[in-house]
Design a protein that fits this description.
With 695 residues, the chain is mostly beta strands. The protein is 6% helix and 57% strand. Strand 5 and strand 6 form a beta hairpin. The two termini are 20 Å apart. The relative contact order is 0.12.
Length: 695
């Protein structure tokens, strides 16, 4: 599905002649005529049909379709790390990509989400990300769910598999004709686990999502949307394993490893018998859309409150997972106002954004004497961020010209009344950042093709280490500048049955934020430069009985030679030299490819049968920026998913599926110190059955 974000709003469509409020099937056709900046790129998208047949059940699964994007848990889903085009962040708190769900920016520790009720998933490239919320440097993951204003619907699912059970129910309905619509969404997932010990499967998890929305047309040209959802996670799935355990998925010993056992490279003891993550999240938002003449105005206010208690790390054990462990609590309040104008060949976007984020983290009653830390400590950080942005667009016949800019102000304040170690005195500090970022987008249409060129300057904000475990963590790190350019072409061929997109890109980073040091003694600071360049190619062919897509990424990433990429750092009296000069960053494979094949075996009026195959392959890559030894390299791999899809009686779908048929081990996270190596690995082979009802 190709995305077309409207420069005409839903409000205008509601007022259009001969179009009922609940029947908006012509939205995309009208949007094509009034294309906005995003549709000029039309870069990467996943449709509802693709998310269903290729099992895109979480934001982590997006890489099944888009090979240049990976989202990794770093010890737990609460601490996600994103890698895009060979660029990643050292800190989950300040990501290179942002995530929007139905137009609402999500909190930084909420990048990993279970997905339900999905209509589309789109990647808005970096330059246009300047016109959205947080100013994520390389772009926005934009997720849309079903909207009852486009028609009443029911979407329910029951999944039973070797590794997981899932039940979801979503309903949207018109409550008062042409005035009020509502929807309710629920989802429960139980992960059975696959790591075995004493005839038990250990890494199980339960998650629950319950939410609802109301859409009220209070005036002919005004709609107010309110939303609330509650999410609960009780997980024991984030096991750090030795390589021996990761390959066998078994814990054969009963002995628990101490921290010294881990650092000495212990292979047979259990690094942590009971890792867990207990998290609750509340999301509430209100959105106002108002259309008048040639202008559309929308205002969003949202609050997200997340609390979590977790313990994953090797050598650290707790007696009570309901009161002890690492906590990471966030409260985020955002407000965004946008004014879209359109008059003949000209369009404009003007907006402002404000965010308040309170981060409260620390540790409750954990025995960390082996590490030299207090078992209870606390640090709080508050961030105030304000932005103004604007863009002008001119479209005349075949030529499009777009110029925009963004100014952003950041204020960070941190306070640690009880630091984790005696070497750190109670402290507080603050930092202010300013950033001005322009972007340029040019496009030219040639019959069935479009050529575009974009260039942008973006800024990744600075701040403080979120877990101040060392004296150097009390020192703020500065913002990172990112400069990117992209030249692309999109074209139809074979009587519009084929679609090809090719993009050449280059990314330069200055004052790179990185954790530097040796072994366990690391701290985040600004180093020198880094760069990435490569090619994204997307090919799709759609025939009557055969659909094929091939998405590939070729990428070269390096830290620049010399300069600040060579240095030393002293942490708690331990001085370590580092040299990143010319090294390949972590999570930056040279080659990635995803390929999907959908074969229609039977197609009648009320039933159809198809086979789907999905191949995911990547070349080898490093799991750490500094340490490139063979134990911290993920070898090249390939995984294969397959499914049989049977649609019947118009509204029903039965899917028998398999995942990871090659039973490949992929290390998503690595932790190392001295001789110790620990890994979090992906799920093994799985098979299951899905039943879907969609009305």
């Amino acid at each position: 599905m190709k995305k077309a974000i409207l420069s005409i709003s839903i409000l205008q469509i509601l007022q259009a002649d001969n179009i009922e409020s609940k029947n908006l099937d012509s939205i995309e056709a009208m949007a094509t005529q009034e294309a906005s900046l995003e549709s000029m790129l039309n870069k990467d998208s996943i449709s509802e049909k693709e998310s269903t047949k290729y099992l895109i059940n979480s934001t982590v699964d997006i890489h099944k379709i888009i090979p240049s994007l990976r989202i990794y848990p770093q010890g737990s889903d609460t601490f996600p790390m994103v890698s895009f085009r060979g660029i990643s962040s050292p800190d989950y708190y300040s990501s290179i990509l942002g995530i929007y769900i139905d137009g609402i920016p999500q909190a930084p520790n909420f990048l990993i989400q279970n997905l339900s009720d999905i209509k589309s998933i789109n990647i808005i490239p970096g330059s246009l990300g300047l016109l959205y919320g947080e100013n994520a440097p390389l772009g926005i993951i934009d997720i849309k769910t079903h909207n009852p204003m486009q028609g009443n619907y029911i979407l329910s699912e029951a999944t039973f598999s070797r590794l997981q059970e899932k039940i979801s129910f979503n309903i949207g309905n018109e409550l008062i004709k042409n005035k009020l619509w509502g929807k309710i969404s629920t989802q429960y997932i139980h992960d059975n686990g696959y790591i075995r010990h004493s005839n038990k499967l250990l890494n199980n998890a339960d998650s629950l999502i319950v939410g609802g929305s109301l859409y009220a047309q209070i005036l002919d040209s005004t709609i107010i949307t309110t939303h609330y959802d509650y999410q609960l996670l009780n997980s024991h799935k984030d096991f750090y394993l030795t390589k021996k355990q990761a390959l066998s998925l078994k814990l054969e010993a009963d002995d628990l490893a101490s921290w010294s056992d881990f650092t000495n490279g212990e292979q047979d003891k259990i690094l942590n018998i009971n890792p867990y993550n207990y998290a609750q999240t509340h999301n509430a938002s209100i959105k106002l859309d108002h259309g008048i003449k040639n202008f559309d105005f929308n205002l969003i206010t949202a609050i997200q409150k997340a609390t979590s208690l977790a313990n994953e790390y090797p050598g650290i054990y707790v007696k009570d997972e309901h009161s002890q462990g690492y906590y990471y609590n966030t409260t985020q309040i955002i407000s965004e106002a946008r004014l879209e104008g359109h008059h003949h060949d000209f369009k404009s976007t003007w907006g402002m954004f404000y965010k308040y984020l309170l981060l409260d983290n620390g540790m409750n009653g954990v025995d960390t004497s082996a590490l030299g830390y207090f078992g209870t400590w606390n640090a709080k950080e508050s961030i105030n961020s304000f932005a103004l942005f604007g863009a002008l667009s001119y479209q005349k016949k075949h030529f499009g010209f777009n110029l925009g800019a963004r100014y952003q102000f950041f204020h960070n304040y941190i306070e640690s009344k009880k630091p984790p170690i005696t070497e750190i005195s109670p402290y507080s500090n603050s930092q202010i950042f300013h950033a001005f970022n322009p972007f340029l987008l040019l496009s030219y249409d040639l019959k069935q093709s479009r050529i575009y060129l974009q260039a942008s300057s973006t800024t990744k904000p600075g701040g403080f280490a979120k877990f101040p475990f060392a004296d150097t963590d009390t020192i703020p790190y500065l913002e990172e500048s990112i400069y990117s350019t992209e030249l692309g072409i999109q074209t139809h061929f074979a009587q519009k049955k084929g679609w090809l997109k090719v993009a050449l890109y280059g990314i330069w980073r200055d004052d790179v934020q990185s954790y530097v040091g040796v072994g366990y003694y690391k701290s985040i600071k600004n180093i020198g430069g880094a760069y990435a360049y490569g090619l994204d190619a997307n090919l799709s062919l759609n025939w009557k009985i055969l659909n094929i897509f091939i998405n590939t990424n070729l990428n070269a990433s390096r830290f620049s030679q010399g300069g600040k990429n060579i240095g030393s750092i002293t942490i708690l009296g331990q001085t370590g030299n580092y040299n990143l000069s010319g090294l390949i960053p972590k999570f930056a494979p040279i080659f990635s490819l995803n390929a999907g094949i959908d074969i229609t075996m039977l197609k009648k009026e009320k039933q159809s049968l198809s086979l789907s195959f999905l191949l995911n392959t990547q070349s080898s890559y490093f799991l750490d920026d500094f340490n490139h030894e063979k134990d911290l390299i993920q070898k090249a791999y390939a995984t294969l998913d397959a499914s049989i899809n049977y649609d019947f009686l118009k509204h029903y779908q039965l899917i028998f599926y398999t995942q990871n048929l090659t039973n490949t081990r992929i290390f998503t996270t690595a932790l190392w110190d001295s001789q110790g190596r620990a890994y979090i690995t992906n799920a093994p082979f799985n098979f299951g059955l899905r039943f879907i009802y969609h009305y």
